Structures are given as C-alpha cells and as structure tokens.
C-alpha cells in the first residue's frame, strides 16, 4: 500500500467486519440473494440455524438496514423479507473476498 493507513479506513473496515463476522449473517444474506423471502425459505436455505437464531439475525440485519421486513395483512398474516440495495452492494463487495479465500485461505 502507498502511504500510511488512515484510522478512519480501519474503523470502516472494523464496522463492516462487526456486521459480517457474526455467525449466520453471511449465509442469511446469501439466502436472500438466492430469492428467499419468507422465514421458512431462509430456514431451508440456511441449514443448521435455529428459529430463535434466524429471528435474531433477521432483526439485526433489519437494524443495520440490510433487510426490509414487510407484513402482508392476510389470513394468516404473511411476513416477507427482502434485501436492501445496501445488502446487494455488500454481497457484491464480499464476492472478491470469497474468491480470495478459495485460493489462499487454508
């Protein structure tokens, strides 16, 4: 790298890692990118996650502005989750990291 590492750059990277480094966040984002919209679809696409963990992580992603939750008034009530543009951008940013990991992280 050219020049000194700026403290603000480090803080931004750490903020991102604090979000994506939480267990289950990555698989949940990828499930959303694969078209998951309802809770049961997320649960099916993220094997091994418990219902309470999925609920918690969806709420955390919503708090970070990465997932939007929509309640559809029907009988029974339907709840749908959709990735925000910020989540789509985050997934795009993670693809090179995934590629790097495939080739270098062992």
How would you describe this structure to a colleague?
The structure is a single chain. 14% of the residues are buried. The chain has 106 residues and is mainly α. It has a two-stranded antiparallel ribbon. A hairpin with a 5-residue loop joins strand 1 and strand 2 (78-83). The radius of gyration is 16 Å and the shape is elongated. The chain has helices at residues 7-20, 25-33, 39-45, 51-63, 85-104; strands at residues 67-72, 78-83. Helix content is 59%, strand content 11%. The longest helix has 20 residues, at 85-104. It starts with 6 loop residues before the first helix and ends with a helix. It has a single domain (7-104), classed as Arc Repressor Mutant, subunit A (Orthogonal Bundle), CATH 1.10.10. It is built from 5 helices and 2 strands, in the order H-H-H-H-E-E-H.
Q: How many distinct helices?
A: 5
Query: Quaternary state, please?
Result: single chain
Task: Name the CATH architecture.
Answer: Orthogonal Bundle
Largest sheet: 2 strands, antiparallel
Compute the average pLDDT.
Answer: 92
Report the portion of residues in β strands: 5-15%
Task: Write the CATH fold name.
Answer: Arc Repressor Mutant, subunit A
What order do the SSEs take from the amino end to the carboxyl end, as H and E? Answer: HHHHEEH
Structural Rg: 16 Å
Taking pLDDT < 50 over at least 5 consecutive residues as the criterion, the unreliable ranges are none
Q: What helical percentage do the residues reach?
A: 55-70%
Number of strands: 2
- The assigned structural class equals mainly alpha
How far apart lie the N and C ends?
24 Å
Shape: elongated
Task: Count up the domains.
Answer: 1
What would CATH call the class?
A: Mainly Alpha
């Amino acid at each position: 790298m050219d020049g000194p590492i700026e403290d603000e750059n480090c803080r931004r990277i750490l903020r991102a890692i604090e979000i994506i480094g939480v267990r289950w966040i990555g698989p949940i984002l990828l499930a959303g990118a694969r078209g998951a919209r309802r809770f049961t679809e997320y649960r099916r696409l993220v094997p091994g996650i418990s219902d309470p963990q999925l609920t918690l992580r969806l709420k955390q992603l919503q708090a970070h502005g990465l997932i939007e939750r929509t309640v559809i008034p029907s009988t029974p009530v339907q709840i749908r989750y959709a990735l925000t543009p910020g989540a789509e951008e985050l997934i795009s940013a993670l693809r090179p990291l995934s590629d790097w990991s495939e080739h270098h992280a062992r």
